[in-house]
Amino acid sequence: MSRAVCRPPSRDWVDNAVRLIEADTRRSADTHLLRYPLPAWAADRDVALYLKDETTHITGSLKHRLARSLFLYGLCNGWIGEDTTVIEASSGSTAVSEAYFAAMLGLPFIAVMPESTSAAKVALIQSQGGRCHFVSESGQVYAEAQRLADETGGHYLDQFTNAERATDWRGNNNIAESIYEQMALEAHPVPEWIVVGAGTGGTSATIGRYIRYRRHATRLCVVDPENSAFFPAYRTGDPEMVTTASSRIEGIGRPRVEPSFLPGVVDVMVSVPDAASVAAAHHVSRVLGRRVGPSTGTSIWGAFGLLAQMVADGCRGSVVTLLADGGDRYDETYFRDEWLASHGMDPSGPAEVLAEFERSGRWPRSELCISGPSEVRNSHNAASTKNPT
Q1: Hey, which end of the chain has fewer CB within 10 Å, N or C?
Q2: What confidence score (pLDDT) does residue 366 get?
Q3: Whether 308 contacts 381, CB under 8 Å
Q4: Which residue windows does the record flag with biased composition (Polar residues) (predicted)?
C-alpha cells in the first residue's frame, strides 16, 4: 500500500475535503428498504424478504458507501492531500464511485483494470472524470496500482485491504445500522438471515461485526459466484486459495481471498452458479419492473434458498439482502442472449427452479454448494437441476 506523501497534507485543505464529503452525505437520503412481493404462500407461512436498495446512491451502487469511507480513511490518515493522484484496482462500480469523490475534491483518479473490461464500464468511469489504465491479466491489477502510486507519489486506495477497516462497523450510519433501524417496525424486525455477496469482503465484515456487537440473533450468509476463491477457502479453511479463472459476475468474485474478508463473522457461505445469478437477475427485474445487476441475482438466489428452507422447517421470520447495483449498465451483456451464449451461460435451468419457488415456495434438494451449519445443509441446489422436487 502506498504511503508516498512525504509531508502532512495541508490541514486546511483536508478539513475542507472532509467537509465536502460530509456535505454530500447530508444531501443524500438513506437508501430505501423494499419489501419484495413474494407470492401468497409467503404470507400464509409468515416469511418476508426485504431488499436494501443501494442503487439509489448518486453513483448507482453499494460501492458508493465504500468509496466514501475509503476517501475519508485516506484523508484522516494523512495519505491524501491536495496534489495526490488517487489510484484503485477496479474495473467496476467501486471505480465509478471513487472517480466521483476524486472529482469532488479536484484530484486526478486512475482505475487499473483488465483490458477485457467492457466499454460501458470504461465509459462510466470516464464520465465521472476518471482515467482507465489497462493490464493484460486480472491478477496484475494489484501490483500495477501500487506501481502507479509509487511512480506518481499518489495514494493507492486498495479497496481489497482497506474495505473492512475503513468502515465504522459499530454504527455511524453504516449499512448494518441502517438495515436494523429500517426493520424496526416490521413484523419480524430482527432478520433470520442477512445475505450479501463476498465482493471485497468489506460489507460482510461490517454487517457480521455489527450483528455480534449488537448481539442480534441474525445469521450472515455470504454468496459467491463461480471461479471465486472465497467459497473454496471458507470450505477448506485455506486462506491462500487462488483460482485460475476470472469471475463472470461483475462486482463480486475474486481470484484470491482478499484481506478484508473475515470468515469468522460469516455463518454460511453459498456458491452460486453463474447461470443462476443471471436467471435470478432476470427474474427479479421482471418482478420489480426495473433491471438489477448480476451480483444482485447472486444474492437473491441465496436469499430464496434460505426462505425456502425456513418454509420447509416451519420457521417464521424475515430475510434481508441487497440490490447492489442497477441492471441498465449491463444491457449489452447479461441481458443479451447472444452474449450469454458466447460466455457459456444458459439461465434456462435455473429459471425453472425460480418458477417453482414462486409457485410453491419449494427449493430443490440435490447436489449442494454450501458451507456452514448443518441446519441449512441440503437447502440449495446446483443451478443445473431442471426438475425441482
Answers
A1: C
A2: 57
A3: no
A4: 379-389
Would you list the DSSP string of 94-151? HHHHHHHHHHHHT--EEEEEETTS-HHHHHHHHHTT-EEEEESSGGGHHHHHHHHHHH
Strands 370-371 and 268-272: antiparallel
| Dist. CA 236–CA 359, nearest whole Å | 36
Residues of the chain with CATH 3.40.50.1100: 11-26+62-164, 33-61+173-376
Q: What is the SS3 assignment for 87?
A: strand
Check: pTM over 0.70? Answer yes or no. yes
Residues of the chain with pLDDT under 50: 2, 4-5, 367-368, 375-389
Residue 357 identity:
F
Please state, rounded to an integer, the average pLDDT across all residues of the chain: 90
C-alpha cell at 30: 438513506
Angle, helices 11-26 vs 63-76, to 10°: value is 160
- Is the separation of the CB atoms in 34 and 323 below 8 Å? yes
34 burial (CB, 10 Å; 0-12 / 13-18 / 19+) is: middle
Considering only CA atoms, give the Rg of the chain: 20
* pLDDT tens digits, 94-148: 999 999 999 999 999 999 998 878 788 899 999 999 999 999 887 889 999 999 9
